[in-house]
Amino acid sequence: MENRKLPSPQYDRSALVTRCLHLGFGAFHRAHQAVYADILATDHHSDWGYCEVNLIGGEQQIADLNQQDRLYTVAEMSADGWATRVVGVVNQALHAQVDGLEAVLNALCQPEIAIVSLTITEKGYCHSPATGELMRDHPLIAADLKQPQQPVSAVGVIVAALARRKAAGLRGFSVMSCDNMPENGHVTRNVVLAYAHAVDAALANWIESEVTFPSTMVDRIVPAVTPETLQRIAEQTGVNDPVAVACEPFRQWVIEDNFVAGRPAWEKAGAELVQDVLPFEEMKLRMLNGSHSFLAYLGYLAGYPLINVCMEDANFRTTARALMLNEQAPTLKVKGVDLSRYADSLIARYENTALAHRTWQIAMDGSQKLPQRMLDSIRWHLANGSSWSLLALGVAGWMRYVAGVDEQGEAIEISDPLKADIAAKVAQSEQGEARVNALLDLSAIFGNDLPQNPAFVKGVTAAYLVLLDKGAKETIKKYAMML
Questions:
Q1: C-alpha gyration radius of the chain
Q2: Which of 204, 32, 147, 18 is nearest to 94 (CA)?
Q3: What's the Cα-to-Cα distance from 315 to each of 304, 362, 475, rounded to whole Å?
Q4: Which of 109, 240, 299, 425 is the least buried, fewest Cβ under 10 Å from its Cβ?
Q5: What is residue 245's three-state secondary structure?
Q6: Residue 7 in contact with residue 18, Cβ under 8 Å?
Q7: 131-163 burial by CB neighbour count: b if 16+ within 10 A, else e?
Q8: Based on the number of CB atoms within 10 Å of its own CB, is 1 exposed (0-12), middle (13-18) or buried (19 or more)?
Q9: DSSP H helix total and E strand total for the chain
Q10: Among 387, 375, 414, which Cα is nearest to 296's?
Q11: How would DSSP label each residue in 319-384?
Q12: Does the CA dihedral 445-451-452-458 come out positive or negative?
């Protein structure tokens, strides 16, 4: 492949002002929020530019991005072909461990910074998924509280930057989570303020009055980048781009309109600005992400490496749609959305053979995902006396998956921040009811209420025992036949 440079976008990049700083320059951000900014710059002469920051990991991404003049390629994948665009809204790119923490804090203290956005995954907030509260004993948080001037965590870095802005007489900025959590703005506010109060009560009070934490709902399927993906993009564009990312054509962004220092005109690029994001968040988290997790655990156990391969099994397709409409949809508060049509659109997106979205990738970090994707819905059903058998099967699928051995006796590579705690529970329990009870003892996931609820324990245990007896493929078939 010829070593050509990426072409610059049509707009004048020198006119961009660094008004947004983003923590977590991962594939999703590259394919989602940055694309909205690029559309605004291309079609609406927006001057909102980005400073991209990685705090932990991703050193090579930042180095590669700087090497190619902070340009990168986004490919939209469909069965009909791939469409590419070069994104050029990045003005600055830093890594805390390469460029130094001071460079990152200086970037955060640029007077023009109006928004600090985050895609750091659920585990990056160092909170308990069951309660939403900051985990003071989290290794990163505990270390940062001892040395608040030298933070490592995203929470610590944000608070340190705000302390500097306060001392310098600069205004605050809005902190916008773009991670998959219900009320992600409230979660972010809770952890930031809890940390700030532990460091400096006066600073915490200033943050309460000078900083907002808008919630968002983001949606776009962005599979992990593989060498094959990069090769396909290079063949199409004629340029080797190690920072390139591929995604589905669909994108959605719902944003709480609550910004202290201005914002881009995201609505001109197709985003929805609303007063309350929660109903949309819950719809996406439960219907899309919940069914994705359901397919990930049970599909992996059934020997299906990709989501679109799961969709080729009529029983998986039937149960996934039934989970969405029969068990997730009734729990939602969203108005004016045809949920049956939404479910059909999700199935169609899952069937996209170009995405090659790995079940193993979606199965990562389940301890952080189960509470909002399945357990909150189960709580609703328990309170309302309605059926939740597929949700029970989803939880059982997670329990079977994290045991670390698949149905063929092969090791499963578990990737989870609570991996050690989960492994300890697995090691101390036998397969069957004892395994379920041991895993339910993980209060960071299940809270204190669900393990004490006999109906919950009975439902999950029954699903787990069927899964052990019949295997994932036959279990899904059995459930599909009952619908």
A1: 22
A2: 18
A3: 13, 20, 10
A4: 240
A5: strand
A6: no
A7: ebebbeebebbeebbeebeebbbbbbbbbbbbb
A8: exposed
A9: 23, 11
A10: 414
A11: HHHHIIIIIIGGG----S--HHHHHHHHHHHHT-TTT--BHHHHHTTHHHHHIIIIIHHHHHHHHH
A12: positive
User: DSSP of 246-301, one letter per residue?
Assistant: EE-S--EEEEE---SS----GGGGT-EEES--HHHHHHIIIIIIHHHHHHHHHHHH
Question: Six-digit token pair at 293?
Answer: 């997790």
Closest of 46, 3, 5 to residue 271, by C-alpha: 46
CA angle 353, 359, 365 (to 5 degrees): 140
Q: Quote the pLDDT of residue 2.
A: 53
The residues, any chain, with a CB within 8 Å of residue 17's CB and separated by 6 or more, are 47, 48, 49, 91, 112
What digits encode the pLDDT tens for the residues 24-83? 999 999 999 999 999 999 999 999 999 999 999 999 999 999 999 999 999 999 988 899
Report d(CA 220, CA 250) in Å as an integer.
6
| Amino acid found at 123 | K
The owner of tokens 């004892």 is: 434
Q: Is residue 54 a contact partner of residue 104, using CB atoms and an 8 Å limit? A: no
pTM of the model: 0.92
What is the full DSSP assignment across 61-120? HHHHHHHTTT-EEEEEEETTEEEEEEE--EEEEEETTTT-HHHHHHHHT-TT--EEEE--
DSSP at 15: G
Measured between alpha carbons, how far is 75 from 27 in angstroms, rounded to an integer? Answer: 12
Nearest alpha-carbon partner for 326 in 285, 387, 378, 396: 387
pLDDT, tens digit, 9 for 90 and up, residues 150-173? 999 999 999 999 999 999 999 999
Structure tokens at 104: 């990152």
Q: Which residues contact 481 (CB under 8 A, 6 or more apart)?
A: none
